[in-house]
Protein backbone atom coordinates (compact mmCIF):
# COMPACT_ATOMS: atom_id res chain seq x y z
CA UNK A 1 0.00 0.00 0.00
CA UNK A 2 2.87 2.32 0.92
CA UNK A 3 4.64 1.52 -2.31
CA UNK A 4 1.52 2.30 -4.36
CA UNK A 5 1.19 5.74 -2.69
CA UNK A 6 4.81 6.51 -3.47
CA UNK A 7 4.34 5.52 -7.12
CA UNK A 8 1.27 7.75 -7.32
CA UNK A 9 3.16 10.75 -5.87
CA UNK A 10 6.01 10.18 -8.30
CA UNK A 11 3.59 10.08 -11.24
CA UNK A 12 1.92 13.32 -10.10
CA UNK A 13 5.30 15.00 -9.78
CA UNK A 14 6.35 13.96 -13.31
CA UNK A 15 3.07 15.23 -14.77
CA UNK A 16 3.51 18.57 -12.94
CA UNK A 17 7.04 19.05 -14.21
CA UNK A 18 6.05 18.29 -17.81
CA UNK A 19 3.15 20.76 -17.55
CA UNK A 20 5.49 23.48 -16.35
CA UNK A 21 7.96 22.78 -19.17
CA UNK A 22 5.28 22.86 -21.86
CA UNK A 23 3.84 26.11 -20.45
CA UNK A 24 7.30 27.73 -20.42
CA UNK A 25 8.00 26.75 -24.04
CA UNK A 26 4.67 28.12 -25.18
CA UNK A 27 5.28 31.43 -23.42
CA UNK A 28 8.80 31.62 -24.87
CA UNK A 29 7.53 31.07 -28.43
CA UNK A 30 4.79 33.65 -27.94
CA UNK A 31 7.30 36.21 -26.62
CA UNK A 32 9.58 35.62 -29.60
CA UNK A 33 6.70 36.05 -32.03
CA UNK A 34 5.60 39.25 -30.33
CA UNK A 35 9.16 40.56 -30.38
CA UNK A 36 9.46 39.76 -34.10
CA UNK A 37 6.12 41.32 -34.96
CA UNK A 38 6.99 44.53 -33.13
CA UNK A 39 10.41 45.03 -34.89
CA UNK A 40 10.33 48.48 -36.54
CA UNK A 41 10.23 48.47 -40.38
CA UNK A 42 13.00 51.04 -40.48
CA UNK A 43 15.36 48.56 -38.85
CA UNK A 44 14.56 45.98 -41.55
CA UNK A 45 15.21 48.54 -44.28
CA UNK A 46 18.53 49.51 -42.69
CA UNK A 47 19.57 45.89 -42.53
CA UNK A 48 18.70 45.43 -46.23
CA UNK A 49 20.70 48.51 -47.21
CA UNK A 50 23.67 47.27 -45.22
CA UNK A 51 23.51 43.89 -46.98
CA UNK A 52 23.37 45.56 -50.44
CA UNK A 53 26.26 47.85 -49.55
CA UNK A 54 28.38 44.92 -48.41
CA UNK A 55 27.58 43.02 -51.62
CA UNK A 56 28.62 46.01 -53.77
CA UNK A 57 31.92 46.30 -51.90
CA UNK A 58 32.71 42.72 -52.87
CA UNK A 59 32.02 43.36 -56.58
CA UNK A 60 35.11 43.95 -58.79
CA UNK A 61 35.61 47.62 -59.60
CA UNK A 62 35.92 48.61 -63.29
CA UNK A 63 38.14 51.41 -64.56
CA UNK A 64 36.49 54.39 -66.21
CA UNK A 65 38.02 55.98 -69.32
CA UNK A 66 37.83 59.74 -68.98
CA UNK A 67 36.96 61.83 -72.04
CA UNK A 68 39.65 64.36 -72.99
CA UNK A 69 38.52 67.02 -75.45
CA UNK A 70 42.16 67.99 -76.07
CA UNK A 71 42.64 64.71 -77.95
CA UNK A 72 39.12 63.95 -79.19
CA UNK A 73 36.56 66.31 -80.74
CA UNK A 74 33.54 67.09 -78.61
CA UNK A 75 30.12 66.16 -79.96
CA UNK A 76 29.42 69.84 -80.54
CA UNK A 77 32.56 70.25 -82.67
CA UNK A 78 31.90 67.06 -84.64
CA UNK A 79 28.32 68.07 -85.35
CA UNK A 80 29.44 71.51 -86.57
CA UNK A 81 30.14 70.01 -90.03
CA UNK A 82 26.76 68.27 -90.29
CA UNK A 83 25.10 70.93 -92.43
CA UNK A 84 21.86 70.17 -94.26
CA UNK A 85 23.83 69.39 -97.43
CA UNK A 86 26.16 66.95 -95.66
CA UNK A 87 23.33 65.28 -93.75
CA UNK A 88 21.39 64.74 -96.99
CA UNK A 89 24.42 63.13 -98.65
CA UNK A 90 24.76 60.80 -95.65
CA UNK A 91 21.15 59.65 -95.94
CA UNK A 92 19.36 61.80 -93.38
CA UNK A 93 19.76 62.81 -89.75
CA UNK A 94 17.78 59.79 -88.47
CA UNK A 95 20.55 57.49 -89.72
CA UNK A 96 23.37 59.41 -88.02
CA UNK A 97 24.33 58.62 -84.42
CA UNK A 98 27.21 60.01 -82.38
CA UNK A 99 29.58 57.24 -81.24
CA UNK A 100 30.97 59.15 -78.25
CA UNK A 101 34.50 59.05 -79.64
CA UNK A 102 34.59 61.80 -82.27
CA UNK A 103 32.78 60.09 -85.16
CA UNK A 104 29.27 59.06 -86.23
CA UNK A 105 27.68 55.69 -86.96
CA UNK A 106 25.60 55.60 -90.14
CA UNK A 107 22.60 53.30 -90.59
CA UNK A 108 23.54 51.23 -87.52
CA UNK A 109 26.86 50.30 -89.16
CA UNK A 110 25.16 48.57 -92.10
CA UNK A 111 25.85 49.33 -95.76
CA UNK A 112 24.74 48.15 -99.21
CA UNK A 113 28.15 47.10 -100.51
CA UNK A 114 28.25 43.80 -102.38
CA UNK A 115 31.20 41.44 -102.23
CA UNK A 116 31.29 38.96 -105.11
CA UNK A 117 33.32 35.80 -104.65
CA UNK A 118 36.04 35.31 -107.23
CA UNK A 119 36.43 38.95 -108.29
CA UNK A 120 40.00 40.17 -108.58
CA UNK A 121 41.23 43.01 -106.30
CA UNK A 122 40.81 46.52 -107.65
CA UNK A 123 40.84 50.18 -106.59
CA UNK A 124 39.07 52.93 -108.54
CA UNK A 125 39.34 56.67 -107.82
CA UNK A 126 36.72 59.27 -108.69
CA UNK A 127 36.93 63.06 -108.82
CA UNK A 128 34.05 65.50 -109.35
CA UNK A 129 33.66 68.32 -111.88
CA UNK A 130 35.66 70.63 -109.58
CA UNK A 131 38.57 68.22 -109.54
CA UNK A 132 37.98 67.26 -105.91
CA UNK A 133 38.71 63.65 -104.88
CA UNK A 134 35.32 62.30 -103.89
CA UNK A 135 35.55 58.51 -103.71
CA UNK A 136 37.77 55.45 -103.89
CA UNK A 137 36.00 52.11 -104.28
CA UNK A 138 38.05 48.94 -103.80
CA UNK A 139 38.12 45.20 -103.35
CA UNK A 140 41.01 44.23 -101.10
CA UNK A 141 42.73 40.99 -100.15
CA UNK A 142 45.85 39.84 -98.37
CA UNK A 143 47.68 40.30 -101.70
CA UNK A 144 46.98 44.07 -101.80
CA UNK A 145 48.29 44.60 -98.29
CA UNK A 146 51.58 46.52 -98.03
CA UNK A 147 53.91 45.93 -95.09
CA UNK A 148 57.00 47.74 -96.36
CA UNK A 149 57.85 51.33 -95.46
CA UNK A 150 56.94 54.00 -98.02
CA UNK A 151 60.55 54.96 -98.59
CA UNK A 152 61.46 51.38 -99.47
CA UNK A 153 58.81 51.24 -102.19
CA UNK A 154 59.39 54.71 -103.63
CA UNK A 155 56.14 56.12 -102.22
CA UNK A 156 57.69 58.42 -99.64
CA UNK A 157 56.99 62.02 -98.67
CA UNK A 158 56.15 64.62 -101.31
CA UNK A 159 56.16 68.42 -101.38
CA UNK A 160 52.91 68.43 -103.32
CA UNK A 161 49.98 69.86 -101.36
CA UNK A 162 46.27 69.21 -101.92
CA UNK A 163 43.84 72.12 -102.15
CA UNK A 164 43.48 74.18 -98.97
CA UNK A 165 46.58 72.71 -97.32
CA UNK A 166 47.56 75.68 -95.11
CA UNK A 167 49.56 74.07 -92.34
CA UNK A 168 49.47 75.24 -88.73
CA UNK A 169 51.73 74.20 -85.86
CA UNK A 170 49.83 73.43 -82.67
CA UNK A 171 50.48 72.42 -79.07
CA UNK A 172 49.36 69.12 -77.55
CA UNK A 173 48.99 65.62 -78.92
CA UNK A 174 48.10 66.82 -82.43
CA UNK A 175 51.01 69.23 -82.92
CA UNK A 176 49.99 70.15 -86.46
CA UNK A 177 46.68 70.76 -88.19
CA UNK A 178 46.76 69.01 -91.57
CA UNK A 179 47.85 65.74 -93.16
CA UNK A 180 47.81 64.61 -96.75
CA UNK A 181 44.79 62.42 -96.16
CA UNK A 182 44.63 59.31 -98.33
CA UNK A 183 41.13 58.11 -99.06
CA UNK A 184 42.55 54.61 -99.56
CA UNK A 185 45.44 53.96 -97.18
CA UNK A 186 48.86 52.92 -98.47
CA UNK A 187 48.94 49.95 -96.09
CA UNK A 188 45.73 48.54 -97.60
CA UNK A 189 46.46 48.96 -101.30
CA UNK A 190 50.19 49.63 -101.58
CA UNK A 191 50.82 46.20 -103.09
CA UNK A 192 48.13 46.42 -105.77
CA UNK A 193 49.80 46.60 -109.17
CA UNK A 194 48.80 49.62 -111.23
CA UNK A 195 47.48 51.72 -108.33
CA UNK A 196 49.34 54.89 -107.31
CA UNK A 197 49.52 54.68 -103.51
CA UNK A 198 52.04 57.50 -103.22
CA UNK A 199 51.54 60.94 -101.66
CA UNK A 200 51.30 62.43 -105.16
CA UNK A 201 48.06 60.80 -106.32
CA UNK A 202 45.75 63.81 -106.57
CA UNK A 203 42.73 61.52 -107.00
CA UNK A 204 43.37 59.75 -103.71
CA UNK A 205 44.44 62.60 -101.40
CA UNK A 206 42.63 65.52 -99.81
CA UNK A 207 43.44 67.95 -97.02
CA UNK A 208 42.55 66.17 -93.76
CA UNK A 209 43.10 67.11 -90.13
CA UNK A 210 45.67 65.21 -88.13
CA UNK A 211 42.98 63.95 -85.73
CA UNK A 212 40.64 62.75 -88.51
CA UNK A 213 43.51 60.97 -90.26
CA UNK A 214 45.59 59.55 -87.40
CA UNK A 215 43.39 58.91 -84.34
CA UNK A 216 43.02 55.18 -83.74
CA UNK A 217 41.97 54.39 -80.16
CA UNK A 218 38.58 53.07 -79.06
CA UNK A 219 37.78 56.41 -77.42
CA UNK A 220 39.14 58.53 -80.29
CA UNK A 221 38.02 56.99 -83.57
CA UNK A 222 39.61 58.72 -86.51
CA UNK A 223 40.05 57.12 -89.94
CA UNK A 224 43.08 55.11 -88.82
CA UNK A 225 40.95 53.31 -86.22
CA UNK A 226 38.67 51.86 -88.91
CA UNK A 227 41.52 51.25 -91.35
CA UNK A 228 43.07 49.07 -88.66
CA UNK A 229 39.93 46.93 -88.66
CA UNK A 230 40.34 46.41 -92.40
CA UNK A 231 44.08 45.68 -92.05
CA UNK A 232 43.40 43.01 -89.44
CA UNK A 233 40.73 41.42 -91.65
CA UNK A 234 43.13 41.27 -94.60
CA UNK A 235 45.83 39.79 -92.36
CA UNK A 236 43.35 36.99 -91.62
CA UNK A 237 42.96 36.39 -95.37
CA UNK A 238 39.52 38.00 -95.58
CA UNK A 239 38.27 39.56 -98.82
CA UNK A 240 36.97 43.08 -98.08
CA UNK A 241 34.99 45.57 -100.13
CA UNK A 242 36.04 49.00 -98.92
CA UNK A 243 34.75 52.41 -100.01
CA UNK A 244 35.77 55.88 -98.81
CA UNK A 245 33.70 58.89 -99.85
CA UNK A 246 34.69 62.50 -99.14
CA UNK A 247 31.64 64.61 -98.30
CA UNK A 248 31.83 68.31 -99.21
CA UNK A 249 29.55 71.18 -98.29
CA UNK A 250 28.63 72.93 -101.51
CA UNK A 251 31.74 73.99 -103.44
CA UNK A 252 34.12 73.94 -100.46
CA UNK A 253 37.66 72.75 -101.19
CA UNK A 254 38.08 71.11 -97.77
CA UNK A 255 35.87 68.04 -97.17
CA UNK A 256 33.55 68.19 -94.19
CA UNK A 257 34.45 64.58 -93.50
CA UNK A 258 34.78 61.10 -94.94
CA UNK A 259 32.26 58.28 -95.02
CA UNK A 260 33.93 54.88 -94.57
CA UNK A 261 32.11 51.67 -95.51
CA UNK A 262 33.46 48.13 -95.37
CA UNK A 263 32.10 44.62 -95.73
CA UNK A 264 33.94 41.30 -95.81
CA UNK A 265 32.94 38.36 -97.97
CA UNK A 266 32.25 36.17 -94.93
CA UNK A 267 30.29 38.91 -93.12
CA UNK A 268 32.67 39.04 -90.15
CA UNK A 269 33.43 42.71 -90.79
CA UNK A 270 30.95 45.47 -91.57
CA UNK A 271 30.85 49.15 -90.71
CA UNK A 272 29.45 52.42 -92.00
CA UNK A 273 30.80 55.54 -90.31
CA UNK A 274 31.40 59.25 -90.88
CA UNK A 275 34.67 60.80 -89.71
CA UNK A 276 34.23 64.59 -89.35
CA UNK A 277 37.18 66.57 -90.70
CA UNK A 278 37.69 68.55 -87.49
CA UNK A 279 40.42 69.09 -84.93
CA UNK A 280 40.06 69.87 -81.21
CA UNK A 281 40.74 73.50 -80.42
CA UNK A 282 40.73 74.70 -84.04
CA UNK A 283 38.16 76.49 -86.22
CA UNK A 284 38.49 75.72 -89.95
CA UNK A 285 37.23 77.70 -92.92
CA UNK A 286 36.24 74.88 -95.28
CA UNK A 287 35.97 77.24 -98.25
CA UNK A 288 39.68 78.15 -98.09
CA UNK A 289 41.43 75.78 -95.70
CA UNK A 290 42.68 78.59 -93.47
CA UNK A 291 42.12 78.04 -89.76
CA UNK A 292 42.57 79.66 -86.37
CA UNK A 293 42.93 78.46 -82.80
CA UNK A 294 39.54 78.47 -81.07
From TrEMBL:
Q: Which domain of life is it from?
A: Bacteria
Looking at the record, which segments are called Disordered? 29-74
Q: Name one GO molecular function term.
A: metal ion binding
**Annotated keywords:** Signal
* Domain DNA/RNA non-specific endonuclease/pyrophosphatase/phosphodiesterase stretches: 118-293
Recorded protein name is DNA-entry nuclease
Keyword hit for Signal: yes
| Signal peptide segment | 1-28
Amino acid sequence: MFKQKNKFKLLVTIVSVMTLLLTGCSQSNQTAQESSSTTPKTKVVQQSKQAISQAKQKEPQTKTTHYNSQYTPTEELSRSVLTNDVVTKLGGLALIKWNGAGAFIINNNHNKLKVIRGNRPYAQCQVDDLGRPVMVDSLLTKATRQYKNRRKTGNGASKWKPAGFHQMKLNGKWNHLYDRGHLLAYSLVGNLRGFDASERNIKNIATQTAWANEARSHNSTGQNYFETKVRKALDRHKTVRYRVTNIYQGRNIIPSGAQLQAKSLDGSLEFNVFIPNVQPGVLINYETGYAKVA
